[in-house]
Amino acid sequence: MPAFPNPELHHLYQRDLGDIWEAARAAEVKPGTIRVWESRGKIERVRLEGGQPLYHLPTVKAASQVKPGRPKAA
């Protein structure tokens, strides 16, 4: 299960979906980073029948806000 799961399909809006380039822009990273996040289970693609791979942009944006590394000690 991804760290940042997508909403259920019936809760998605077309305006919130984008290809890998739009996802990279939303997260302010390179498209290769989106691929790495997907391969490591941080995010997932939206699975639509017969279409190109899409990403839920608000989910990708939320994933970009979490920086890698260990949490700081209290």
Write a structural description:
With 74 residues, the chain is mainly alpha-helical. It is 34% helix and 5% strand. A two-stranded antiparallel sheet has the order 1-2.
Short description:
With 74 residues, the protein is mostly helical.
- Global outline: globular
Number of helices: 3
Tally of DSSP β-strands: 2
Order of helices and strands: EHHEH
Q: Calculate the terminal CA-CA distance, rounded to whole Å.
A: 29 Å
Uncertain spans, ≥5 residues at pLDDT below 50? Answer: none
Question: What is the helical fraction, as a range of percent?
Answer: 25-40%
Largest sheet: 2 strands, antiparallel
Q: How are the SSEs ordered, and which strands pair?
A:
Blueprint: E1 17-18, H1 20-27, H2 31-39, E2 55-56, H3 57-64
Antiparallel strand pairs: 1-2
Helix pairs in contact: 1-2, 1-3
List the defining traits of the structure above.
single chain; 74 residues; mainly alpha; two-stranded antiparallel ribbon; 3 helices; globular
